[in-house]
Amino acid sequence: MNEIKIFSPATVANVSCGFDVLGFCLDSVGDHMVIRKTDKKGIHITKIEGFDLPYETELNVAGVSALAMYNAIDVDFGFEIEIYKNIKPGSGIGSSAASAVGSVFGMNELLGRPFNKTQLTEFAIKGEALASKCEHADNLAPALFGGFTLVKSVSPLQILEIPSPDDLYATIIHPQIEIKTSESRAMLPKEVALQDAIAQWANLGSLIHALHTSDYELIKNSLHDVIVEPYRSQLIPHYDDVKTSTINAGALGCGISGSGPSIFTLSKGLETANKVKEAMQSVYSKSGIAFDIHVSKINTEGVKII
Amino acid sequence: MNEIKIFSPATVANVSCGFDVLGFCLDSVGDHMVIRKTDKKGIHITKIEGFDLPYETELNVAGVSALAMYNAIDVDFGFEIEIYKNIKPGSGIGSSAASAVGSVFGMNELLGRPFNKTQLTEFAIKGEALASKCEHADNLAPALFGGFTLVKSVSPLQILEIPSPDDLYATIIHPQIEIKTSESRAMLPKEVALQDAIAQWANLGSLIHALHTSDYELIKNSLHDVIVEPYRSQLIPHYDDVKTSTINAGALGCGISGSGPSIFTLSKGLETANKVKEAMQSVYSKSGIAFDIHVSKINTEGVKII
Description:
2 copies of one chain form a homodimer.
Chain A: E1 3-13, E2 22-38, E3 42-49, H1 61-70, E4 78-84, H2 95-110, H3 117-132, H4 140-145, E5 148-154, E6 157-162, E7 168-175, H5 181-186, E8 191-193, H6 194-213, H7 216-222, H8 229-232, H9 239-248, E9 253-256, E10 263-268, H10 270-285, E11 291-297, E12 304-305
Parallel strand pairs in A: 3-4
Antiparallel strand pairs in A: 1-2, 1-12, 2-4, 2-5, 5-6, 7-10, 7-11, 9-10
Helix pairs in contact in A: 1-2, 1-3, 2-3, 6-7, 9-10
């Protein structure tokens, strides 16, 4: 096998009460990539479609993660990478993570899987760091492992795979506005009230239990964010309206995807997820802001060969 | 049935990363109580052995929780309560919770179980509030439900029963010193660093997952408290020595039980739990401070008829 085509999925990080640690993987939106073994040594990006991204390996997220892996192996050949990008950079659904994950996953397959998924995450973190200026794995972990993941720690890297009920669907709206990561980060308080922190970890502990026990009502009761949402939601137009209308439409919860501007919801069943989509459309149609909406089953497989 | 004898267990609250929400139930230490239906209406405490506690119903924790239930029912008889107290008040292993739970559990049995365990917790909270000046259920919930419990919220009261592996044992040392609750509370910071809060909820989420999956290594990796332990451990003599020596003896984790002064550890297997006991003894024997040590399987049943 000298060439492989892969699907590298979009992901939702933070998941309300799971700020900075929890994420889940989407099914219906992601990038396609082709990874090819070549006689020419090194990592070469030969095609990029969809969005305007750099071809220089060291300046491209997929290139940097590929290089991190390439430097850890000793081979007399190289790799070409073609990127067919569907996830808009800056959308808040793990665009850079999909790129970072895709190249290392594809290379690992072509090499006969010398690395496990945690090791692949370590390489991908280097690519992610190029985009987000810090080493984190909230989007990488669900993209690689699929399903829900809890990044217990980054150093050493510890990723837990959390089970989730079969009938769980996400609906995500991506308002086409730009939020500067620097601005989104600067909004976060350095200190939080102990009482708020306790409420947040009660909810996260409860959410992990609810995912294990397929308790949809408890998922609903746990999907609250008292720490970050009050700040970051201010950057997303009509956030409160989307939240109210999607909850009224039956969503279990609604929160900011990553650092925004995308807004995610979780629902029990496709029918409700589609009603939630209509509720989102109804709010944003009046706004004059362009938007995309995705409805997706939780992707329990993660990045895969297609 | 007009009379019932019960065992009301000691409990460990907080459990390192689960500050204010998590608790577990002990097997080898607890109070005995006798609850008796009487022609005389009202709640009457007729016997107290073990420790010097008030006989006035309204001033006694078991009495106050019993009254809360009694006022919610309409019967033409009353109840007598005998308390054989083994758990020293102020020890940090749920002494007041055992009293508050015992009376309402026993009365409920004699009445034919009109109330579920969450409702019993609501009554017991009134008794607990007499002792601790605030309404909380961290010790009540494990005493009533057994095993590990997560109190997701107090108002409305939401208690989750978390499974735990079969071979999990606690070793608890109770140094015979007094820590004033007011002092212990005043030490807590009102605000905490966001990064610390994130570490704490990563650990709690991870611990809930580890308990579900019987992953002892992950239990060990999760039993850390970066928020409260640095403050409250200062009030407990030789805390750091106990921690170091018990971890070296094989304990999965070591932390402050409730607000102290008791220190708890969790271990895989009775043999290790006993080695941990020796390690604790070795530290405190040299200290000149009197102490008790309990080794206990996790009590998955909670308060019970004997």
